[in-house]
Amino acid sequence: MNAENNIKTFIVKKPLKLDCGKTINEFPIAYETYGSLNKNKDNAILVFHALTGDQFVTGQNPITKKDGWWSYAVGPDKAIDTKKYFVICANVMGGCMGSFGPSHEDPSTGTAFGTNFPVITINDMVNAQYNLLDHFGIDKLFSIAGGSMGGMQVLQFISNFPDKAKTVIPIACTSSHSAQNIAFNELGRQAIAADSNWKGGDYSSEDTIPNKGLAVARMAAHITYLSKKGLQEKFGRKLQEREDLKFGFDADFQIESYLRYQGSVFVDRFDANSYLYITRAMDYFDLAKQYKGNLSDAFRATRAKFFIISFTSDWLYPTQENKDIVIALNSIGADVGFVEIESDKGHDSFLLDVPDFLSALKNFLDKSYTEN
Amino acid sequence: MKNEFQVIAELIEKDKKVLDVGCGDGILMQFLKNNKNTNIRGLEISKSKVQECIAKGLTVIEGNAEKDLKQFPDKSFEYVVLSQTLQAFLNPELVINELLRVGKKAIVTIPNFGYWRVRLHLLIKGTMPITKTLPDEWYNTPNIHMCSIKDFFYFAKSRNIKIFKSLAINNQNVSIINDSNLTIKNFFADLGIFLIEK
């Protein structure tokens, strides 16, 4: 498998000043597109991925050989219809699917950046991806959409570039990472740091990588993406290929086996240092703080039409945090719609086959597009 | 579109910003958007109705009028419409105050409990009235604060709410209610429509 051949990349020539104070030059952004850009260049949708996503939104991911992370929502005739729209998605900065990240070579040392990579923010990610508009010659996006960290990027994008999107769809997200969000991310980071293979982030020169720490981080995080009810219905106390308890510490229960599996497949496709950097970026996200505590000010300059979606069983980014964004928008008379979708699939609902969600997304986009 | 919505739409001039509280499946919103170039928003508690509105391309927020009106700034809409839901709130007075805070004007419609069929039903049958506009049984009705046209009139007066226009609907007939015909309209009208301001 030649991974590099499957990754489209362009080099951003414009220097980018990061929130940490450093400036980066000539850095790569890896991206993928679906559908085709029309003549007027007014059918483009920029999709932002979540923590562990990548630019391969739909179809088979050429690197992992699995379905793209938003295959339920994006594709021909789907909610984000690629027969109609031109979908662009970039790997976030700090990621590990070709965009500038900690596994890239540090020219000053000749080895991977590791933890010498600058600490990046959601703002930095969005500013980097903004270059995609120039790259494709798009003046204004028809829509920007994303769930979870993707939703945070959506909010940051429209606040940075208020006239660059007609419609704005933040899904299952927040305008500010809560203490609980930070706590879970810290748990994941500490799991990685506790793996002796991590070596302060300087592991890439050796064969040993912090697989165990990263797997535990993923297992813990995975629980937060599901709901108690969903877990209970799917697994309950069912045993894993055994008749009775074994009085040991193997995976007796299906849920244990499931989590171990989730952890083990994750390490094949994700880099531990990227996990540290991206979770840090999420934790630093506080859009209201960027506007002296007034979230409404983040959206005052835009005329875009917002559609905010949350899920009943999402306790990671609960409805109230999504509603806070609605309230901030309503208080300045912005054009905002909001729906809370009934689902017991937890935070992950936005990635799954949840018909009410997918039809709401489709109807909003298609109706807004005809009114274009 | 039902007669009531026709009457409400006639009360609203072109090119205004309007909030439809309890907008249901968005029929009135759609009419105002298409015919009056209204900048229209909706608030609706039912998830399935919100979905219907989205499918019509309408901007709707899922929410509850008793809790979620407070997010809108003072006088941020020219009109706020509340169609036949006042009687379903735990605290109708609070909702009226919120409508009048958020809207420069409010249009409120009520199923009239003073309507002769309602009175007759209770008088003759001795059971809770069921009519076309009040189709539910006492045990499953959402309506917990029924009032008559007269009640609403007196309420407005006692709270210094200005009634600009009040209309009575009986079947297809629309007529104006005033102080002198109040008792008669309260007897014959099925539905009252009030344009108010504070």
The stretches of 5 or more residues of chain B where confidence is low (pLDDT under 50) are none
Specify the number of helices of chain A: 11
Q: What's the mean pLDDT score of chain B?
A: 96
Strand order of the largest sheet of chain A: 1-4-8-5-9-10-11-12
Distance between the termini of chain A: 43 Å
CATH class identity of chain B: Alpha Beta
**Biggest sheet: strand arrangement of chain B:** 3-2-1-4-5-8-6-7
Description:
The complex is a heterodimer of chains A (372) and B (198). Chain A is of the alpha/beta class and 372 residues long. In chain A, helix 3 links the parallel strand 9 and strand 10. Chain A folds into 2 domains: 3-178 and 285-370, Rossmann fold, CATH 3.40.50.1820; 182-278, Rna Polymerase Sigma Factor, Chain: A (Orthogonal Bundle), CATH 1.10.1740.110. In chain A, the strands form 3 sheets. Chain A has an 8-stranded mixed β-sheet with strand order 1-4-8-5-9-10-11-12, sandwiched between helices. Chain A has a two-stranded antiparallel sheet with strand order 2-3. A two-stranded parallel ribbon of chain A has the order 6-7. Chain A has 11 helices and 12 strands. The radius of gyration of chain A is 20 Å and the shape is globular. Chain A has helices spanning 122-129, 131-136, 149-160, 179-193, 211-225, 228-234, 254-269, 272-284, 287-290, 319-330, 355-370; strands spanning 8-12, 16-17, 23-24, 27-34, 44-48, 74-75, 80-81, 86-90, 141-147, 165-171, 305-311, 335-341. By secondary structure, chain B is α/β, with parallel strands linked by helices. Chain B has a single domain, classed as 3-Layer(aba) Sandwich (Rossmann fold), CATH 3.40.50. Chain B has 8 helices and 8 strands; from the N terminus they run αβαβαβαβαβααββαβ. Chain B has helices at 3-11, 27-36, 47-55, 65-68, 92-102, 116-125, 149-158, 182-188, and strands spanning 17-21, 39-44, 59-62, 77-83, 103-111, 162-170, 173-176, 191-197. Chain B has an 8-stranded mixed β-sheet with strand order 3-2-1-4-5-8-6-7, sandwiched between helices. In chain B, strand 4, helix 5 (92-102) and strand 5 (103-111) form a beta-alpha-beta unit. Chain B starts with a helix and ends with a strand. Classes of the chains: A alpha/beta (372), B alpha/beta (198). At the A-B interface, helix 10, strand 12 and helix 11 of A face helix 3 and strand 3 of B.
